[in-house]
Every structure is written in C-alpha cells, then in structure tokens.
Fold this sequence. Notes:
The protein is mainly alpha-helical. The strands form 3 sheets. A 3-stranded antiparallel beta sheet has the order 6-5-7, with no helix packed on it. Strand 3 and strand 4 form a beta hairpin. Helix 1 packs across helix 13, helix 10 packs antiparallel against helix 11 and helix 16 packs antiparallel against helix 17.
Amino acid sequence: MFKRRNRVEDLEPIIPDEENVKGKYGVPKTYDPTFQGPIKRRSCTDIICCIFFLTCIGGLFFVAFLAWTSGDPSSLLHPTDYKGQVCGRDEAVKDKPILFFYDYTACADMTSLLEFSCGTPQLCVSECPDYTYFPYALTAVPSPAGILIDWSRLICDYGFDPEEEHNSGDYQGSGGLAKIFEDERCAGYYLPQMEYGKRCVPTFLVLAAESFENGLSGENVITVESSNTSVLPPDAIPVTDQPISPFGDQDITSLENTLASVLNVFMGLQNIFEVIYEDLVASWPVILVGLFVGMVLAMLYIILMRWIAGFLVWFTVFLLNGLLAAATGYCFYYWKSLEGVEGAEGEFKLTTNVIALLRARSTWLVLGCVFGALTVILLLVTLCLCNRIRIAVALIKEASRAVSCMMSTLFWPVIPFFLEVIVVCLWMAVAAYLATSHTATYLMYYHNGTQMISNGTECSKEDVNDTDGESGLHCQFASYALPSYFIYLQFFNLFMLFWLINFVIALGQMTLAGAFASYYWAFTKPRDIPNIPVFRSLGRSLRYHLGSLAFGSLIIAIIQIIRVILEYVEKKLKSKANNKVVSYVIKCLKCFFWLLEKVMKIINKNAFIMIAIYGKNFCTSAREAFFLLMRNIVRVAVVNKLTDFILLLGKLSVSILVGVITYFFFTGRIPYLNSEQLVPSITYHWTPILIICIGTYAIAWCFFSVYDMAVDTLFLCFLEDLERHDGSAEKPYYMSRELQKIIGQKNIAE
C-alpha cells in the first residue's frame, strides 16, 4: 500500500497500515473512481419507519379531529362552573353571570396550569363577595362554633344549605362544621373581590390591572397609600369575647398590611411598565435597525473567519498559557514574601475563613503547584496537538469559504423556524381542544338513610331529578370531567410534538450537510459546485430519506418523553411520599437520559451527514460515522472544542459590539448621529439596549448554527478524503492546498 511521509507529529496515521486495515472501528474507506460527492443515484431508506411516521401523522390529525369535535376552547374564555354550565347563559345559572373560585391558590399549581383549569370548585354567582371572612378558622373554637358563623356570608354548592345541614343534616357538631369546608361544600375563606372578565378576582389584583391599563392609555392612574389603605372591612370577623380563631387582631392587621404592600408593589410596577411601554413605542425603529446591524455583523464575522480564525485561536492559546504561567509565578512570589511573617506558617487546611486561608504560606504554595502543573500540562498539550490545532483552524477557514460560496445557506434556518412554529401552534391547538373536551356524567343514586349513594348506572341529562317510584333511584349530576382515555391522547400529542420538532431539526441538518458536502467534493471550486445546492439537497432528503429522518428524530423523541415521564413521577412522589432511595434512583435515571440525549444528538447529526453524502439507511450511516470519528478521535476533540470556542466568541462579540454601538447612540456620544430627530427621547436607555442585545444574540445563533454544520460536514469529508485518496494523479485530494500543506502532502498533478 502507498506509504506517506508525514513531516509533522501526528499520533493518528493518515493511512492505516495494511495489517491494521480492519480494526475494531471498522474498515477505512478505499478509493472509488465513481465517487464525486453526494450520490445522485440513490434509493429510499428506512421505508418501514417512513410508513410508521406517516401513520402517526395521520393519527395526530385524527386526534385533532376528535378534539375539534368534542372540545370547546371558548370555555377557557367564558366562565364555566364545575358542572360545565356557562355562567349567565345556561338555564340553571342564567341569573348568575360571574364565576367564583373557592381557592385561588389552587390555580397556581403546575398540574392545574397544564390542564387549563384550577383544581378548586368553581360556582356561578350573581355577585362577588366584598368582605373578608374566615369561617373555616371558627372550627377551632372549642364551644359550639355554629353560633359564631354568619351563614349568609357563605358561598356554597348549588342546593346546599349549610345551616340546615349543620343543625339537622349530615354535618352536625363541630366536626361536621369543619367537614363542610373540608368536603368543599362551601368556601373556607373570603377576600374582597371584584368582577373582572366575568370572574371574581381579589380586589387588589383588579385595581392593579386597571391601573396598568389606564397607564398605557394615558388616563389617570389609581394611587394607594399603604398607611391609609385597608383592604379588610372593620366587620370582617365577628366580635366575640372568646378567642374565636387563630386569626387574631395582630394576624389580621399583618394580613391587611401585607395585602396593601402587595397592592403598592403593583402600583409601582404599573409606573415602570408604563414608562417601558412608552420607551419601546418611541424606539422601535432603532430596535429594528439595531437587529439588522447585528445580522449584517454576524454575516461579516462568518465571511471574515477565513482571515481571523488563526489569529483568534493562537492568540487565545498563547494568552491562556501566559496567564497560567503568570499565576504560577505570582503564587510562588507571594509564598516567598510571606516567609517570616507572623501567623503565616502552618499546615494547609481547608476552611471557610477565606482571609485566614489566604494569609497562610502553605495556601500559596499549594496554589503555585496547582497552577504550575496546569501550565506544564497545557504547554505539553499545545506542543503535542499543534498539528491538529492547525487542521482545526484550516477547517474553520474552509467552512467560511463554503458559506461565502453558498450564501443561501445563511438564510436556510428561516424555513425550519417557520416549520417549528407551525408544529408548536398545531400542538397548542390540539392540546387546548383536548383539555376542554369535558363531558357531564349523570348516575342513578339512592338514599341509604344517611346519604345518597350511586349504584353506578348512568342516566341522561333529561332524566335529572326524576325518581323511580319502585326502586327509589334518583338521577342526578355526578361529575364533569375529561374521559379517561383523553390523558393518553394528550400524551400522544406531546410525543408527536417532540417527534415533529426533532424531525424539522434533522431535515435542516441533512439539507445543509448535503449542500456543504457538494462544496467539498467539487474538485475545482467554485466551478464544479452544482447549482442551487441547498434546494437540491432538500429535494434528495425529502424524496429518499424521509424514513431515515423520522428514525433518527424518533430516537430523540422517545428519550425526551421518558425524561418528561421521570419529571412527572418525581413530582408525584414528592407530593405523596419522600422515599430517598426512589428519589435517588429517579435522579440517576434523569441524569442518564439527559446524557443519552446529548450523545444521541451528536450521533444523529453525523449520521445525517453520511446519509446526505452516501444515501444509506440511518443505522448504517450512524455506524460508519461513529467508526470514522473513532479512528480520528483526537482530531475530533480538537476540532469540536475549537469550533465551539470560535462560535461562542463570535456570538458574544457581535452581541456586545451591537450593544456598545446602541449605548453610544442612545446616550448621544456618536457626533454625526447626535440629533433629536434621530435619537428618541426615552427614560430607560437599557430597555431597547437589552432587547437589541438579546435579539442580536438569537440572530447570531441562527447564523452560526449554519457555520457549525459546515465545519462538521467538511471535517467528516476531510477524514474520508484522507482515507480514500493519496495525492497521486489517479487518486488526488479534494481538500484545500492549506490542508494538504498541514498534513505534509500535495497532489502530484499540481
């Protein structure tokens, strides 16, 4: 076999020896005279997974149709009680247009938010309570507490008379009084509330919302002085000589002051939001210009990378070595200077007293040894990996040339972005319809002498309140809830969200990989680069490799849904039992699947690159990509880390530069732009500056994700080029002359 003279130190052979051709990492590629880049004649791959994917999409549309026919998202807007009756519209509650919540704190529970509802009874009422009352607290009174209850203030379930039930019904005695509130037959506490959106909302929240709206519209705002404000009426708690509840005078005053303080915080935030809104209205043209400038700078950074990549990398390497050497010298210098100082001698001991730790000579000796060891290690690594760093820099420069030759790749992320928006909107719509697909259930009940008991037989809504004379069975409302199988439909909908999002990401990666592979395998650049390479690659991906895209994205979706299940199980266990062993096992599983997802995303990315080039199925491509990278593992590590560093540096540089320019513009420090017509008059300069910086970073991330894909694709092509060719006239290299020079070879024909 042809042997190479490698004039640079390189731990990995460019061409393996003949006896090592077949190792544990597969067979290296051999010369193929018919191979000239991405295969044009290819066949469909992973057909079974493609059929399964299309079937699941059909299933998703069936679920969407089922949700659309049974759900009613408008119920999220219209006040609906726990029986499914629309307040003020349905016959039974036509005179009760407002919805009242027993316990507003239940609405803040995460499970309730996911189910688009509050986990507390909700009743239709004619008016909201305008008083503060804590009847449940009166159950702590040792004497008969019923005499202390103001029954007229209680808001209870339809048809439930708490006074009658307490005196002669199923809730007699002090225990029965508490059970009325524990069974949620009546609300246990009341705060002053006002109607807002046909719902009873605590007064201080309504005032805050109205003040904010008035501020935005330019009307007078409501101001509240905490010292003169009382959100509790003087007759909130019945007067009695006995200590009627834990809510004594001091506690009530504390609660009053707390609510007043919260209200004043909202009032203060209202003024801030009003000013921010006015600043955004005044500066939105500048924000758009700033984002456009950020986009232009991101593009220029990528184009200029071919000239500045080497400087950035080597400057950083030398700077890091210099800083570690300086830190080592300073530590030993300080260790020497503390010689003979009183209290500086002694053994090194870790302690939380930082001052005492830094006064000890042994501390600086240990730090000097640590920094010295890091300096030596980094210096040796730099010397040993010098050639690989040069290869990484050359590939980064080559990626810049590839993007410059195919500028359409920079705008490709717009298409996946809109596809992802469509997928998310579809998921939200289906989830909303499923979450509102409640059905009312009516069952037959009989009275056993003490209470009504259901026999499990269903009846219709028309039979409500009808009683069978012979059996005594009575049809009445039982529940208003989602069918049991709808939770599985929500689970399927969430799973399809993960699958489709990962499918769109995979499609973007394969499309870009095919375009950049076309660039690398063009022998004479840019003459041999095919026309519209991005759309050609997109066409190949959709026509032949829909199944492979679905296969790779399915793996990631399964891992992600398992992580969601683990999160759900962990929260359920925390609320019911605190088993440390089970909690530890779940945390280990979460860590494992998090790591597995990261690894599989890397494997998928490289598999899609190989599919874009050779057109093989997912498993074969993933195996070949993995073996190719393992045969060049050191190069892989160096190229990936340097690329990540360059891209991070680029995103930060562009964002900071645009932020600095914006700051100088708004503060009037740019002479030629210091005009009242150009610089808007705003109160908080940092509001538009932060928006521009964050938006610029997001734009730069989109552009640099394309650049990252270019580096990964060209790197795999470079490794394939090394194994396939030897620089002879029959087997010339496709790599650039700079890369040929680094590896110490060149094409003989040149």
